[in-house]
Amino acid sequence: MSPVPPRVVATVATKLDFGAVNRAALAALPDLLARWLPDGRLHGAEYVARNPRRHDRSSGSFSVNVRTGRWADFASGDRGGDVVSLGAYLFGLTQIEGGRRLATMLGLRGGSNRHG
Fold it and tell me: CA-to-CA distance for 90 and 93, rounded, in angstroms?
């Protein structure tokens, strides 16, 4: 009997409730940002930091809205709409990998909440 092709395994194993992960991550966002972007500072609802993905010498162009989780690097044009995409971007992961790692970090069931 031949093994299941990796693509099929990945499809079955990738169900993740991104909404639940993002809601939990948004509640923990100040702590996540302090861990991921320790040189950043809060300016109103925006957490402003240097972008660790490029040679950013000073903060100002990379920011994360702590109320919504939306983020952008206005110098490079990179942006995203939630905390999962931020984690995936910062650590060079796919969205599903970022979601799973974030779920695990936040103590969500087995790194995922499976709802189909």
Answer: 8
**Greatest mean pLDDT range, 5-9, 16-20, 42-46, 58-62:** 42-46
pLDDT, tens digit, for every residue of 35-86? Answer: 999 999 999 999 999 998 888 777 778 999 999 999 999 989 999 999 999 9
CA angle, corner 94, sides to 27 and 50, nearest 5?
A: 60
Q: Among all chains, which residue has been given the structure tokens 């660790």? A: 52
Burial class (CB in 10 A: 0-12, 13-18, 19+), 111: middle
Q: Are 30 and 45 in contact (CB under 8 A)?
A: no
* Distance, first Cα to last Cα, the chain: 28
Dihedral angle of Cα 92, 98, 100, 102, to the nearest 10 degrees: 110
Enter the pTM of the model.
0.79
Distance, in Å, from the CA atom of 27 to the CA atom of 76, rounded to the nearest integer, reads 27
